[in-house]
Amino acid sequence: MLHYLVPFFIALFVTYVLTPSIKKLAIKVGAIDRPNARKVHTRVIPRLGGLAIYIGFMAALVLQVSFSPEIWGLVLGCTAIVMVGIWDDICQIPAKVKLVGQILAALIPIYFGIQIEWLTNPFGDLIVLPEVIAIPLTVFWIIGFTNTVNLIDGLDGLAAGVSIIASISMFFMALHMQQQVPALVIIAMAGAALGFLQYNFNPAKIFMGDTGSMLLGYTMAVTAILGLVKTAATVALVVPVIALGLPILDTLFAIVRRKMSGVPIFQPDKGHLHHRLLALGLSQKQAVLIMYCISIVLGFLAWFVVNVNYKTGILTVLIVLAIIVYTAKRIGILCTTTNSTRKN
To answer: In terms of pLDDT, which residue wins out, 309 or 87?
Structure first.
C-alpha cells in the first residue's frame, strides 16, 4: 500500500503548491468567472485551476509510472482534453467546437490500444465487439464521463470532492483485481484533486474550470477502460458508473425534467440536486457535504456489487435506484422548472 501513497502525495503536493501561481495566471489571461443572476457565486473568481491538477497528476505519472504505449495514450489524451479546457476557460468556445475537441481527445487512447473490445456475458463467454462498435462505444464512454463531471461542477468543491471519492473507489477495486498500473494512475488523480480542493472548497478561491472537470472525468473513463483491457473483466467499467452515480443520475434527471417541460435538453435550469438542496435552505457547505456522503454510499455500493453474485448485485442496484428516484421526486429534481442557471 505504501507504494501507492507516493504518487498520491506527489500529485497532492505539486498541485497544492502550484495552484496559487495558476490563480495569478488565470487572472492575467482573463480566465475569470463573473457572477450573474444564473450563478451561485457572488464575486469574481479565477478559473483554470484544472491546469494545476494536470501538472500535479503528470508529475506523479512521470516519477512513478513506467510509460507503456497505453500510458502514452492516456498522457497524450489528457493533454489534449486539457488544451480544449484551457481554450474554453479563456475564450468560452461554442459547445459544438468543444465536443469536436472531446472526440479528438477520446480517439487518442484508442489509437494506443485502449478501447472497449469485449464485455462480460453473465450467461456465457466474453462478448467480443467488432471495431465498428468498439470504437464508437469507447468514444461515447469517454465523452460521457468527461461531460458528467463537467456538469456537476456547480458548487464550491463539489466536482473535486465527488471525483476524489469515485477515484478512491476505483483505486480499491483496481487493487482487488491486482491492476497495478490503473491503481497508480487513479490514486495519482485523487491526490491531485485533493491538493486542489484545499483552494476550491467553500468559499472557493479558484475554480477548476472546464480544464479540471473534463480532465477528471476523462481520466476516470480512460483508466476504467485500461482496467478492462488488463483484466477482461467488465467490472472495471461497473465501478466508475456506480461510484459516479450521483452526477450520472443528476444528468439523466435533468434530461427527463427538460423533456417534460418542453425545453431543449441542453438549456440550463435550477433543478439539479445542488440547486434543490440550496432551495431547501442548506448552505453551500452543507449541500456539498451531503452530496459527498451520497457519493461515499455509492462507492460502498460499487464495492458490494462487484463482490456478490450477478443476481444479488442487480437486485441491490435496482432497489437503490428506486429509492433515489423516489427521493428525487420528493425534493423536486424531476419537477419542471423555468428558471435558468449555469454551473459556477
So the answer is: 87
